[in-house]
Design brief:
about 55 residues, mainly alpha, 2 helices
Length: about 55
């Protein structure tokens, strides 16, 4: 069904958004950490791949 997403894709999207919030808060509080941002980018790319392959 076009436009619909299954539970795992929604969960992955929620984790990606939550990860962005956590990494941003860490950066504001303690300074930037390149590995955290790299990990978030990888998570975002995986989420994007799941969304693309779903449709």
């Amino acid at each position: 069904m076009p436009g619909s997403t299954n539970g795992s894709t929604k969960a992955m999207g929620a984790m990606t958004v939550g990860g962005l919030v956590v990494v941003t808060a860490y950066t504001v509080a303690l300074g930037s950490n390149g590995w955290l941002w790299f990990g978030w980018v990888v998570l975002g790319l995986l989420t994007l791949a799941m969304v693309v392959t779903q449709s």
